[in-house]
Amino acid sequence: MAALSTLSDHELLQLLGQDDHAAYSEIYRRYFQLIYVHAIKKIQDKEQAKDITQDVFTYLWFKREKSPEIKDLAAYLFTSARNKIFDLFAHEQVEQKHIDSLQQFYSKNPIHSTDHQTRERDFQAYIDKQIAELPPKMRLIFELSRKEQLSYKEIANQLDTTENNVSKQVNKALSILRTKLGPMFFLLF
Questions:
Q1: Per residue in 100-125, pLDDT tens?
Q2: Taking the CB of residue 35, how many other CB atoms lie within 10 A of it?
Q3: Residue 83 is part of a domain; what is its CATH number?
Q4: Is residue 102 part of a domain?
Q5: Which CATH number characterizes residue 177's domain?
Q6: How far apart are CA 4 and CA 31, in angstroms?
Q7: What is the pLDDT of residues 157-169, one digit of tens each?
Q8: 139 φ, ψ (degrees, to nearest 5)
Q9: 117: exposed, middle or buried (C-beta count within 10 Å: 0-12, 13-18, 19+)?
């Protein structure tokens, strides 16, 4: 059989329809970077772009029995990515509406009850626990940035590292916390 890299998209789709994992791998190799760059341009977030790209290819694998029906593979993959990006935007809009609604409610109805104070204390303890579970160096950098309000340059000087490393550590910590805290993350950070 000819090397998969020499096959057309149509031939690869025919093989994919027959559960050929090597054909899927070749499609992935050909199109992953293109779809990923397209997603980054649209959403400006590398992690989310990577997730969307992975979702596109996962969907292609799960629907492989229908792959011989695809007429233009590139168009199909880009359309799938576009739809997933739209889904993400729609989800973020709904999430933002809920957050706005909560903020509006709390601004109009300040609650100072003991129950509220207990919940607030419990929630703060939960947040502190999630921060404490970060890797030690990442946690230190995050706390210096967020709790002590130091600049990346000040943190880099204090810890004898680069500003770029500090930035990466803070962004990674925020990504981890965003995942763990869900919609409440946006109220806090």
A1: 787 787 777 765 667 767 877 887 88
A2: 22
A3: 1.10.1740
A4: no
A5: 1.10.10.10
A6: 14
A7: 989 999 999 899 8
A8: -60, -45
A9: exposed
